[in-house]
C-alpha cells in the first residue's frame, strides 16, 4: 500500500503506522483496514493539490491576460494624451508664429513707409541743394 503514495507525500501509510505505534503503543499490520482511510485521504489530498495547481496556472494565465490588456489600455491612453499634448503645443507654436508674422508685417509696413519718406526727403534735399546752387542762397 505504501508503494502507491509518492515518496514526497507528507503522509504515508508507514508514517501513519509509526505515529500510531509511537502515540498509542498500538502496532498495525500492513493490511489493517484502518489504513484504507490513509489511502483515501492521501488520494483526496493529491486530487486537491492537482486542483490547486490547475487553479494557480489558470489564475496566472488570467492575470497575464489582464495585465497585458491593462498595459495596452494604458499605452493607448498615454499615446492619446501625448498626441493631444503635442497637437496643443504645435497649435500654440503656430499661433505664436502667426502673431509674430503679424508684427513683422506691421514692422515691414513701417519700414516701407519710412523708406518712402526718406526717399521723398532725399529728393527734396537734392531739389533744395540744386536750387541753392542754381539761384544762390
Automatic annotation (TrEMBL):
Instruction: Indicate the transmembrane segments per the record.
Output: 114-135
Source domain of life: Bacteria
The identity of this protein, by name, is Transcriptional activator TraM
Q: Which organism is it from?
A: Maridesulfovibrio salexigens (strain ATCC 14822 / DSM 2638 / NCIMB 8403 / VKM B-1763) (Desulfovibrio salexigens)
What are the entry keywords? Membrane, Transmembrane, Transmembrane helix
Amino acid at each position: 500500500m505504501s508503494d502507491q503514495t509518492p515518496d514526497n507525500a507528507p503522509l504515508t501509510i508507514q508514517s501513519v503506522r509509526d505515529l500510531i505505534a509511537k502515540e498509542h503503543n498500538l502496532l498495525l499490520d500492513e493490511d489493517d483496514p484502518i489504513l484504507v482511510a490513509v489511502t483515501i485521504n492521501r488520494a483526496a489530498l493529491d486530487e486537491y493539490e492537482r486542483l490547486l495547481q490547475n487553479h494557480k496556472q489558470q489564475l496566472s494565465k488570467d492575470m497575464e491576460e489582464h495585465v497585458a490588456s491593462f498595459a495596452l489600455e494604458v499605452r493607448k491612453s498615454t499615446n492619446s494624451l501625448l498626441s493631444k499634448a503635442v497637437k496643443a503645443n504645435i497649435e500654440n507654436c503656430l499661433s505664436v508664429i502667426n502673431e509674430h508674422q503679424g508684427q513683422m508685417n506691421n514692422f515691414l509696413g513701417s519700414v516701407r513707409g519710412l523708406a518712402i519718406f526718406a526717399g521723398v526727403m532725399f529728393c527734396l534735399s537734392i531739389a533744395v541743394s540744386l536750387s541753392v546752387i542754381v539761384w544762390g542762397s
